[in-house]
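Annotated sample (chain length 216).
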Amino acid sequence: MNKSFFLPLVAIMLLFVTKSFSQSRYNDYNRFGISFGIHQFDIRTNDLTTTKSTGFHGGLSTRGTVGRHFDMIYFLNLNRHEVNVLGRETLLAANEEIPFKLLAAKIGVLGSYKIVEKHLSLEFGPALQLSDKFEVEGKYSEYILDGYDSFTANEARQTSRINLMGIVGISAGFQSFKISLQYEYGFSNVLSKLTVENNKLKGNIEQLSVLATFYL
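Output written by the structure step:
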C-alpha cells in the first residue's frame, strides 16, 4: 500500500478509537481491548477464478455497556489479506494459483446482544475497509488470468479503495478475554475499478475470522 495514503489513514483511525474509548464510559463496564486473529479471505465473483487463503489481522477496540442487554464495540483492525487467483504463464500453459495480497485498515462499530452477561454475546454491525492495490510477486505479474486471452495479474491489482462490510458473529469468554467468530460480507463491488473488453468486473469480499481479544 502507498505509504502516503496508508500512514495518515492509520493515524486518523487511531485517533478515532482513542476518542471513542474516552467517551464511552457507559455505566460500570467499559474495556479497552487489543485483538489478534486469523481469517480466510475470498472474493465472490463470476469474473475471476479465486480460492480463499489465510491472512491475519490485529487491532484495537473498546467495549462498553449501553443497556441491560447490549454492549457497543468500536474497533480498528489492520488486515493482511490474501486470495489466490487462477492464471497461466502463457495461453498454452497449465493454470497456477497466483497469490494476491492486500494490506487494509478496517474501522467499524458492532452492537453486542448479551446472551450471558459478560460471557456470551451475538454481535452485528457495519464496517468500512480502506485499502490500496493488491500486491503480486513480480514473477506472476504477466501471467494471464483464467478465462481471458490477455488480461494479466498486474492489470488486475486495482481495487475499490473503500468497501462497505457487514459483520455478524458470536463471542465467548470472560470479562478480560474473549474469542470471537465472525463472518463478513462486502456489500460494495471490490473490483469496480477493473474493466475488460468494456465489461466492468464485479466481486464481493467474503471473510471468516477467528479473533482473540484481551481487555485491559
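Annotation: Residues 3-23 form the longest helix (21 residues).
Annotation: The mean pLDDT is 88.
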